[in-house]
Amino acid sequence: MREDIKEILVTEEMLGERIRAMGTEISRDYQGKDICLIGILKGAFIFLGDLAREISIPTAFDFMAVSSYGAATRSSGVVRILKDLEESIQGKHVLIVEDIVDTGLTLSYLYDNLKNRNPASLKVCTLLDKPSRRKVPVQLDYRGFEIPDAFVVGYGLDY
Ligand code: IMP
């Protein structure tokens, strides 16, 4: 794998610093509320773990797994749910935690799907954002880094 890597876009130090800042921001924004973090598997699991450790308010966790790369349905924006949430999110403050937003198709589907379950609030946090690849508009409430159109690996991302 190492010989396939051309350059380092985000260093370990940059990750640590940015995730700490995001955790602080999220803790401040949700002060006095309970928050439910929904990690999108598998790519976001390490980010979710590191982010959660930087959040200082009561936090619940749940996970979803969806098919993304390689699926025939990708260009249509229809995403297959491989694993659904275990708990209801009705009336809860929900934060979707994604590893990377590329075309936006996966997130757009997930957002609408979760919105229909009537959470008290629904926001999005992504570690990486490739805005130049966007096919559908999505709102990113917390964003770690904007990166160019390159396939990135490491830190638990799909490879
Ligand atoms: P989208 O639906 O095109 O926005 O793709 C979103 C999903 O594709 C992400 O959650 C990742 O799992 C995956 N993905 C997109 N770009 C990359 C990349 O550069 N490296 C690893 N996974 C990626």
Topology:
Elements: H1 12-29, E1 35-41, H2 45-53, E2 59-66, E3 81-83, E4 93-101, H3 105-115, E5 121-129, E6 142-146
Parallel strand pairs: 1-2, 1-4, 4-5, 5-6
Antiparallel strand pairs: 2-3
Helix pairs in contact: 1-2
The chain binds inosinic acid (IMP).
Brief write-up:
The protein has 159 residues and is an alpha/beta fold. It has three helices and six strands. Inosinic acid (IMP) binds at residues 43, 68-69, 98-107, 151-152, 157-158.
Search tags:
alpha/beta, 6 strands, globular, binds inosinic acid, about 160 residues, Rossmann fold
Fold and architecture overview:
With 159 residues, the protein is an alpha/beta fold. The chain has a single domain, classed as Rossmann fold (3-Layer(aba) Sandwich). Helix 3 links the parallel strand 4 and strand 5. Helix 1 crosses helix 2. The model has no long low-confidence stretch (mean pLDDT 93).
